[in-house]
Amino acid sequence: MKIGAPKGTRYILPPEINKWHYIESIIREVMNLYSFYEIRTPIFEYTELFQRGIGDTTDIVNKEMYTFLDKKGRSITLRPENTASVVRAYIEHKMYGLGGVGKFYYIGPMFRYERPQAGRQRQFHQYGMEIIGTKDPKADVEIIKATEEIYKRLGFTDYKILINSVGCPKCRPYYEEELKLYLKDKYDQLCDDCKVRYHKNPLRILDCKREGCRRATESAPKIIDYLCEECKIHFEKVLSYLDALNIKYEINHRLVRGLDYYTKTAFEVIAGGLGAQDAVGGGGRYDGLAQEIGGKEIPGVGFAGGMERLILALSHAGIEFPREDIQDLFVVFREEVEKEAFALIFRLREKGVKADYALGKKSIKAQLKEADKKGVKYVVIIGEEEVEKKILTLKNMETGEGKKITEKELYKLFEKE
Ligand code: HAM
User: Fold this and answer.
1) What's the chain's Rg over C-alpha atoms?
2) Ligand 1 in reach of 60 Cβ (< 6 A)
3) pLDDT tens across 304-337, in order?
4) Which of 162, 298, 309, 310 maximizes ligand 1 atoms within 8 Å of its Cβ, making it the mutation to test the pocket?
5) Do the beta carbons of residue 163 and residue 270 sit within 8 Å?
6) Which of 36, 66, 81 to mutate to test the pocket of ligand 1 (most atoms within 8 A of CB)?
7) What pTM does this model have?
8) What sign does the dihedral 250-251-255-260 (CA atoms) show?
């Protein structure tokens, strides 16, 4: 019986994995430079964390979570995102006691039971960053700037930053009432999901992609006209810092995001060439999240980007990924001297030379063929004569040139490169 991979999952195989290593190294480089520390949280959590954190009127909690009972009957969920877990870790480990604000980043798999399509999977990967413990609008902008810096180092320019404010529990209810009033006589034009949202979470109607809902909300009142003084000032400051750093953005009144924990700033990055799933990342401020999941009031702001979507966007933009280092050297040997060759391979590795060899192949021809297939530049060939005279035959696979060389000279050759 053939067992296929579960729907919505993908194997990341060599050489594709090189792209991942390259992007991850740039993310780590930028995060390091900006003084963010890596945090690794569990892949599964108690379901309640996400129900309370993300919000039980959201699609993620209602439809998309991988939830199951463990052997003791506790409800467990594979993490659909990581912000709630990072905030929980911050509270649980009293990281606010470590002095000042916490800056964290992560890279890892997330799980959502969505309909798979290009750029949408059930197991996907996010890289994300969170600044926890401050209301300062500079933190919002630092997150956006870090996001841009990652793109810049990748050579990626085909993206747009959309930004909005979704207010706070003080001012948002006024806007929601206003929006409902506006939509009251357009209720019949709304899709079934949005009819439910109308009562439970009207803001999300603005985000619906269906034609009828888009038309119904076309001239809807804008949330930024209903912000309280605190939210208004915060938004103005965020925009002014973005301007100060020359970061280009577009205010988008429809941007409300799919998670309930957002307050004030919400933003998204969309990229060209991705079709319907064009959001390569999104984030915002979540000043009420810590309290929601049982802690004290601790503000925070963050962003997460989709690794698969970013790779798709980079490929679409024609960005080349540097080739990962392959072996420096392939050791090819006659069976009679295999022990000597085997020992040489490890001496080379000890000196830092990436030496490899063909396992399970006897003929010189077959070994050379494997070296060629792997794209190795140098090969050393060892036979009885070489062992006797303590000399090696070095072959440059690119030029076809061959010469005799001592082991010492061989180390030197790779020292210089
Ligand atoms: P999100 O918008 O739900 O935000 O996800 C962030 C990004 O993850 C999306 O923009 C997309 O690139 C990627 N993504 C989401 N779902 C899928 C999927 N099924 N397949 C492939 N890629 C996907 C969050 O998760 C928030 N935690 C972000 C955040 C951090 N807000 C504050 N801090």
Assistant:
1) 28
2) no
3) 999 999 999 999 999 998 877 667 899 999 999 9
4) 309
5) no
6) 81
7) 0.95
8) positive
